[in-house]
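seq:
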Amino acid sequence: MVKLLNSHNIPAFVDAMEIIVNVVRQFEICTGVCHKKYKPFWESCKRGEVDKNPYQEARYSVTLRSIHCRRLVRPRQGMCLSCAQLQDTLRMKARTAASKSHSKNRARKSVKSLFVKAAVWADN
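struct:
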């Protein structure tokens, strides 16, 4: 049953709302995954959505949020658990991409080294 506001319960309602507002004010907005090094992997991420910061949060201009983002986090926590898990996934993708790139560069250097050695051998 819904209680309607009347002159008798307005002070109690205002007190309850004040308590709620004070509790919510203690929290911060989750930053999501806003680190630039993960941005190339945002597009391929099915568990996240880009947030273009419509409320002009000061700590980021654009971020990737988990589709399960809680939005509010404890002070100095930075991001919610869902966004932290999403960041871990992107970190693994970035490592894999860096490892593949490193392997390609090593292979190129090996091939180049073989050509240099062959050229030196041919000159002798």
